[in-house]
Amino acid sequence: MSHLYIVENGSRLGIDGGYFVIEQKDGLIRKIPKETLESIVIFGNCSVTTPCINSLLANNIPVSYFSSKGKYFGRFVSTSNQNIVRIKKQFFLCENKGFRTEISKKFLAGKISNQKVVLKRYSDNNNIDITQNMIQIKSAEKKIILCDSGETLMGYEGTAAKYYFDGLSKLVKKEFAFDGRKKRPPRDPFNSMLSLGYTLLMYEIYAEIESRSLNPYAGFLHRDQYSHPALASDLMEEWRPVIVDSMVLSMIQRKEIHIEDFESDEETGAVWLNNTSLKRFIKKFEEKLNVKVDYIKDIESQCSFRKAIWHQIGRLVSAIESEDGKKYMPIQIR
To answer: Which residues pair with 304 in a beta bridge?
Structure first.
């Protein structure tokens, strides 16, 4: 199955027989067989014909819309995957303190475990001392195990994140140096890539949540917030270091991205990738999701990250339907 990204402004998406057809302003035409397409992501201005929309909905192919700078606008999707019984049970468990706390601890256990692995890999490869960062992260990790409330959990998670990003800042080249996580707006190239990667990952998970008849806005770790898909944020936590952080570090170290690839807004201070580099980043992200790895604990060998995300949301469905938080195990890499 393929996942289509349209980045060229002025493109037109239509349908011709058994194919979805992308026509670019420069005259280039691409055709994709309907039966092979799983999702579409559009950046910037692209028109979609009405017959094409009808076919996308009929074939249950969701379309996500982003600005040319990577800001998420929304998506349209078929309403065929609705299971109100499951959603009502999800809402009920969101208010069950015991279940919520147990699941939340697992989200953070996976996240922090994976953060430690990423830091250790890159620090060992570059002979950089991050001993104090690891000590502080492990300290927060131990305290999380003993927590009995979401507010306290998030406090210790914030401490672990602070020392994690400080550790990351020691691992990147000087021209990509950053001073902690900054996101609204990202004011340096490293944070800009993290923000873009997290946004793409968020809505990858969002789509999978909807396909499993869960509500992306009713979370366990992240509390209710207007227009915030809390459950997608919950499930993304353990994947952030594994997919996005390691990918960004790799692109910098392999010189696949350069400081000249970024633009900035003098008024807001926001920094983002230019159009050419955005295409390169998206291509790398899609490759990352599809690469098959054998270092994910408790998952079959040679499993892609995209399939592992699917598998993980299935675990959450099982935990919700059985009302047993023990059925959810966090993703941890070796």
So the answer is: 292
